[in-house]
Structures are given as structure tokens and as C-alpha cells.
């Protein structure tokens, strides 16, 4: 009704308002008479209800924008309405959106995207922003991506035909999983995912009614991936399903671990042995902070393992404009490189992509610019390098700061943040707090995070949203706020945690 | 190998090339030794094959970018390589992409999008292009869309909470269908779609393993929708499935018919009677050419039918930046207005959308600008009006021209193009041509279209890609090339058709 009143003020609305905002017009009365329906209002059951909806969709959970984030939104509205809280703002440390937390876009990227949309760079961008592109993405952008991959991987060749531009990496991951999942009963496709994981994977597995096969990262060993654990997982899974896919996130999300080259070789060998289609989510490939770690692409390692592997292991690798030093989340730019596909499958994949026509051309443009940064000697190079180093240096500093500060707090243990943009500390939850959580019908870490949010305004995501070993609890917090703000946030979390321990001692 | 050579020339590549482009490096040799795998190349079976892939994806067809379009691409490459053909260019009249065929973007739209990306319009665009937006879309854009709908519908109120921004209309349609489909066996959800249809619908139904329930538009009556045919379809469907959804495309694609208000009321009443969730695909709402036709939104008609309908019928209406006078396909801008959802379903829908994070912000910006055109008195108004009228006037002229010319051709009958941007003429295919088609293992209209492509370079889509009554054949051709080119195209189709009839007489 308020909205109707507002519309009247705007002059968009007839001045006679009936109980439904407009009143029963003569057209409506006539229609009702013709159709012989009594015009009183009756409430009928809905066709689409929790019972009748797609059960696979009902089972989907996506904690990164889940219940705690909805609660954060409500609290923000309350703050806007002047309701007093122990804090003046909600800090959204739940989602990997750097620019939303104040990170500046890279000047070169933005200028280029801009010139592209003005069609001032025909030689660089051979498509029209207003038209659909080819479903696999603009050809010359795919060539640029292939050239980028080749340079990144020290000369290991990438074929543009194996490159698919996507609407963010999420779209590519979802598409590949969709084409892979088949079978029924004990032949239903099993998809191996790390625990903890980025919950896109569990959500898509749920949507597709595939079988989620968990393999646990080793928290006591910096979240390392242990091939014995992969073997354990696949062995047990074979009793229930047909394991066909192995998903790796490197650098990890939420865990931030950066896999060693040896580990990657072991994983590839395991996939080769067990006949698993490999998905390598490498969106954080530019976010490596630990001086002892280095990003190794699955593609490169696979190639260097020789042709028995490089000609046979089916591998899809994913990248995105949303992370790294770019932080261009809103453009929904991404690509996947998919190698060793059966020749007949390529056509099926392009067919599937064609139904959605094409990814947003502006996102493709953004991806093109990301893979074509300025090189030494070019006018833009200095500023670009400076800005990139500043962003990444800042993130590295914040990674260390976060790890150190959390590890000073009794009852919190935080593994080193080797890469990505998150801390995933383990929290000790006292027995009394567990009981309180149970009373509230919440997982203990959700209870903890809700309390944190209500008392400090800091929004993080409970570890249960990512998966964790039974009996352990965590939360995921981004390291994206500016340094000074991050220090304040960390201090508040520390103070909260100490009070929490005291309260529920 | 050519690519490898090119990479060497670019200096990205070691100069010693082995049979796999790089040669076995020492790292690879070492790895092979450690893993005890003999390094010769052997070809293993693929994990992902036509047999093992998702059968629902295998069943998907999308003719608009299907086999004939792939053939057109091959022919283009041959032309580029200098192979002589009876024509010098391929004319892609298969897809509704206006700007790809030379239509100019609207100045106001492009300037605004541009200023938005420069963040020079903070009061207009309350989001950051680099960040993820809310999953339902930027709030103030949703408010603008609601205001647009209210103005368009003469004051019928639209609630921003019911507006969801999407990655093109395809994304919204796919999401709504996904949440609706459930059940198994004879309880599997049936989705009613028009025949002929836009094959996104059949593709998504296939992906979701739902049941496609065809209702036939009446070709002898300008492709009118007859409620008796809806009743026939739902009655028969109930023996096989649980019909739950009714999809309408108005103005129609590929058929171009614009539904009368009376027809829309009848459809709404039918949906109310049969308890069907209504999907109204209205992406061509600005493309109405026939002076006897007018666009009536389902939302408006529903509202004016009084509260028994307007409070109960679950309706999702879709719009896009890709069609109309805008033709902004590459931005992937779209929205859906979904009313009368069960309160618990709203949360489920937003949850499902949140897994993909958000639609591209540039597409949301484009949609925002589309719903906020200049008004009389504003500086941009004159030019905007002029350009809009020019585009739409041109399309109307081409619609009539196409209908008239096709109807002069013996063996072709073309219904009036009341709206949208396609002709869908019926073609007579002689018996000998049917036999030839069978020899080539093609549907007769595919055979016809292939011949048309090979002999004239004109790429259209066979009617079998959209559905048609048994024993009838059609093709869909866009009316998007510039007038003079379109006349040439039509003349060539005419000449081809006459020769075709003679050849297969």
C-alpha cells in the first residue's frame, strides 16, 4: 500500500484506489462477468510450494550468501532505521569481493574495457559489444587466452579450440559437471570434492542429483591434500556410486593452501589410475603469498609428466576475472581450458553452451584484457605493475597479519594463509555453547557466527557451510577489508571470542 | 604443429620441438621414472563419451545455433580460403541478433552504459561495476524495472521485490523451470509449450528431464492460440505426466503472432482452471508491427481480471535487452517479474540464484537504462525517439516486405509477421525432394535449408528446429538485414525455391 501511495504521488497512478491498489475497473468487472467467476477474493493453494518444488533445488545450500548473510542484511536495515547496536556498520567479510571492500580496480583494465565498449580498439577486440558472440566465446579472445596460458606455463602449448569463455568460473564448472553426470542407482556419477570446499560444488552436485564424494584435506598439515585420503574416498565411494570426477581447488577455498608440484603430480597420477575427469579450479592462481609456495598449473604439470598422462587425462582448468589482483567480480568474466576431450564430446559441449547463446561480451572483454596485461616497454606498464604489486603485496601482508593475530587468541587456531583471500581458522566451542546452539536449533559454528554478527556486526560464514571434519568448527573470513580496518576487525573477533569462551565456560 | 611453429616465432617456445610440440623435458623424464610409467604414448578410452555423458544433455537440441549454422561456419571458412562458391558471403539469417546484421545501437543507451561504467552517474546507478551485486540484482535497478512495468501497464502496480534481474531472459526462464520440475513416472512435471516454439524451452525441458507437452498454434489462423487446443493438450498430457506449467511466447517466436487481449484472458482463465504456473515470454514486447495488433502484458490483463485471478495465478513474465529496438544481445541483460509466489518459495528462488552469485552488472546497467528512456523535455529525447522510431519503422517495413514477397512465390506461404523479428513461411517440398532428403538422412526441411545455404549462402533454420505439425515444413528467417540486402535475400530465396521445385518436380 505504501508503494501504491508513492506511485500516486509520482503521478503514475489513477487517484481512486481500491483495496487492491487500483480498484475494480470496469474492464475487470466485464471480464469477470464474461468468465462467470465470482469476483470476491479467495486464496488458493499455490502450484509451486516447498512440497511440489524441485527437491534437488530444495537440497541446495550456498552458505556464502546463506542465512547468516540474510541476517546481516536485516541488521543493516535496522541500522539504517536508526536502531541502536553495539556497532555502527556491518562488515561483510563473507564473500570474496575485493572491490566491494575498497580494493581499487586496476587502471589499465578499466581503461581498456572502456575503450573496448567505445569500439576504439578494433584490432584488439574483434567483436561487437551489442551482438551475441560465438557460444564458445569470441575467437580472438580465445586465442589470447591460449597465448596467456602458454606464456604462464613456460611454453606448454594451449590450443584456442580448447578454450571456452564462461560467465564467471561458476558457469564453466557447472556446465562441465552437468555434461558429466549420468547413471542411476549405484551407477550414479560420484564427484569427489575437497572438504572444506567452496560450496558451488556441493550446490551443483545437489542440483544435478549426483553423488558428493568427500575427501578431507589435512588440517594438521596446512590443509594438505594427501593421496591416501583420495584413495580412501574413492574406495568407499565405489560401493555407492560410480566415481568419475575429481575436483581440486588450488589455491584452496576456503583453506588457502597452495599445492606443491609433487602433490599435483600425485593427484594427476591418481586421476589417471582411477580414471577420473579432473577439474582444476585455479581462480586464485594470482593469489599466492607464502614465499615457500608457488602456483603450478595442473595443465603444465600434466604436460610435463609426459604423453601417457598429457594425452590421456581429461582435464578442465578454470580461471576468472573476479579474483587475483583484478577483483572484477561484476563483469562475470571467466574461461575454462578443457583438454583431451573425446572428439564427439566437443560438439556436445558447444551445443550445451549454445542454448544460453553466449557469455556476456563485456565479461569476455574483461578476460581478454586480463590475459593481455602491459609488457615492459609499454607506456602503461609501470603504473600497471605498481598497482598490481600494491594489491598483491597488501593481500600478502593482510594474510600474515590475520594468521598471526588469530593464533594469538586462545581457542582459535589458524593455518597459514598460503594463498586465496580467506582465513579459515578453527575455533574451540565450549560444551555450554554447544548446548545453547542446540537449543537454538543451529550448528555450533552457525551459533557462534550469529553471535559474532549480532555483537560486532562482523559477518563471516560458519565452517559448516564449507564442510569440516566431524567435531571440528571453523569460520571463513575474507582478508579483503583495508589493512587498518582489518586490524580492527581482527581485534573485535579476538575480543568477542574471549568473551564467548568466558560466557560459555 | 602450425601453432607450435607460430609460438616458436613469437619467442614463447623452446626451439627444440619434439613430436608433442615440446619434446620430453628432463622434468617429465624424471617424473615418469618416479611414477614407474613407461613413457610411450598410448591411447586410453575417455571417461566422458557419448555413452557415458549426461543423456539429458545428449538429448538437447538447439537449432538456432545447430547443424545448419555449423555448416554455415564451415562455408565461411572456405570462402575465406578462396574456395569459389555461387556467392561471396554467408548471410546469417538464423539468429535474432539485430546489431550483428547492421542495426545501429541507440545512442542514448550506449552513452549511458558508458557513463555508468565510468561511475559518472552515481545517482542513477547505485552499484559498483566491479563488485558482485545482490543475487536478485541491484536494488535500485529493480525499483526502476518495477516503475517501468507500472508505467507500461497504465498504473498496474509492480513490486520491486518481485523483480529478478537475469543474464538475458534465457537465464530466468531456465531458473524458473528448474525450480518447478519435480516428481517421477506419471507424476513427472509436464511443461506446456507452443508448437512452433523457441527451442530454449525444449532444450531446458530436456536438460531437466521434464515432460514436453506440445500445444499447436493454428497456422490457418495467423498462428492463433486456441484454448480448445490447450484443453486437448492438457487432457492428453494428464495420462503421462503432471502438467504444471504453461509457457506462452507473446509476441511469438518463430511465428510472430501478437495475441489479442481476449486470447490472453482465455489463457489466463485456462491456467487458473487447470492450476498451471504461467510463464509469459515477452521479450518482443516492443516489436509489434501490425496496425491491428497491440501488445498486452499478461501481468496487466491478469490484474484487470480481478482479484480471484490476480491474487492467485502464479505468473513469471520475462523481458530482455536483446530484442525490441535496443538489440543489445551481448550485454545479456534481462529481468523476470514473478508474482503470487508462495512466501516460502521466494527464499528458495533467491537461494538458487545466489549459487551463481549475480547476473553481469553491465547487463543489469543496460536493463536499467532500457527501462529509463528519455522523456519529453529531456535533452536526449528527440534523438532517442527518432532512432527508436527509425529502427521499429524499418522492422515493420521489412516485416511487410517479407510477407508480401514470400507470398508471391509458388509453394511458399507466409503468415503476416505481426511482431517479433522472424518470418516462418511454410514451404511445399515435392515428393522427390523428400526422397532425396531421406537418402541424405535429413529431415526434408533441413535438406531444403542445406541446399539453400550451399547454393545461395543464406543461412536459415529449418522448421523442425522449432516444431511444426506433422507433414508440414517451414523455415525461420530473420528480417534483420538492412532493407536493400533483405530484398536481395528474399529474391535469392525466391529464385532458389523455384529452381528447387523444378529440380524435384
Automatic annotation (TrEMBL), chains A, B:
Domain of life of the source: Eukaryota
CDD domains linked: AAT_like
Transmembrane segments: none
Gene name linked to the record: GPT2
Keyword list, A-Z: Aminotransferase, Pyridoxal phosphate, Transferase
Pathway note: Amino-acid degradation; L-alanine degradation via transaminase pathway; pyruvate from L-alanine: step 1/1
Species this chain originates from: Physeter macrocephalus (Sperm whale)
Keyword Transferase: yes
Domain Aminotransferase class I/classII large, first and last residues per copy: 131-492
Family affiliation: Belongs to the class-I pyridoxal-phosphate-dependent aminotransferase family. Alanine aminotransferase subfamily.
EC number: 2.6.1.2
Cofactor(s), names only, from the UniProt record: pyridoxal 5'-phosphate
InterPro entries named among the record's database cross-references: ALAT1/2-like (IPR045088), Aminotransferase_I/II_large (IPR004839), PyrdxlP-dep_Trfase (IPR015424), PyrdxlP-dep_Trfase_major (IPR015421), PyrdxlP-dep_Trfase_small (IPR015422)
Subunit structure, interactors included: Homodimer.
Entry-linked SUPFAM superfamilies: PLP-dependent transferases
GO molecular function annotation: L-alanine:2-oxoglutarate aminotransferase activity; pyridoxal phosphate binding
Protein name: alanine transaminase
The reaction(s) this protein catalyses: L-alanine + 2-oxoglutarate = pyruvate + L-glutamate
